[in-house]
Specification:
Elements: H1 2-13, E1 18-20, H2 28-33, E2 40-42, H3 51-59, E3 62-68, H4 70-77, E4 88-93, E5 100-105, E6 111-116, H5 121-127, E7 130-133, E8 136-139
Parallel strand pairs: 3-5
Antiparallel strand pairs: 1-2, 3-4, 5-6, 7-8
C-alpha cells in the first residue's frame, strides 16, 4: 500500500488524478468512467512540478540531510531557490557535489524540501553558519 500512495503522490504532483482500487474486480474502469465512486481518488495538484523538480523530489535518492534554522525554512518554503551557508545549522550524511539532499528544520527535525547540493558534506561542514562573501567568510555575528 505504501508504494501505491507514493505512486499516487508522484502522479498528483505531475498533474494527474489517480484512483487506488482493487485491481481484481472486473469492469472497474467502466464503473469509474460512468462516475461511480470506486476506491480512493487522489486529485491532481493545481500547480504541477516541472520534470527536473519531479526528478529531484522522487527519483534521485537522497544522500543526506541539511538542517536549517526557522528563518531559512520560511524563506525556502516561500519559493526561494537557494540555500546560503549562514542558515545551515547541521549536516547529516556523506554526500558529494550534485547529490540530492533533504532539507530539514533544525527545531522540528522534519524534512520539508529536497535539493541538489553545490558542496560535498565535508566542505559544507566547514562553511555552515558562515556568511560567505567574495571568497571570504564572516561568522553569523560579525567577522
Amino acid at each position: 500500500m505504501k508504494t501505491k500512495i507514493i505512486a499516487a503522490k508522484i502522479a498528483a504532483t505531475s498533474g494527474v488524478d489517480t484512483i487506488i482500487t482493487n485491481g481484481l474486480k472486473l469492469n472497474l474502469l467502466k464503473d469509474i468512467v460512468s462516475g461511480f465512486q470506486v476506491g480512493t481518488i487522489i486529485k491532481a495538484k493545481k500547480q504541477c512540478l516541472k520534470a527536473r523538480k519531479l526528478w529531484i523530489a522522487f527519483s534521485k535518492k537522497s544522500k543526506g540531510t541539511v538542517f536549517v534554522d526557522n528563518k531559512v525554512s520560511e524563506v525556502l518554503l516561500s519559493g526561494s531557490k537557494s540555500l546560503l551557508a549562514v542558515g545551515i545549522t547541521e549536516i547529516n550524511g556523506n554526500f558529494q557535489m550534485g547529490d540530492a539532499v533533504n532539507i530539514a528544520n533544525t527545531k522540528t527535525r522534519k524534512n520539508f524540501v529536497r535539493g541538489l547540493t553545490n558542496y560535498n558534506s565535508l566542505d559544507l561542514e566547514k562553511i555552515k553558519g558562515k556568511n560567505l562573501r567574495y571568497g571570504k567568510y564572516y561568522k553569523r555575528n560579525g567577522r
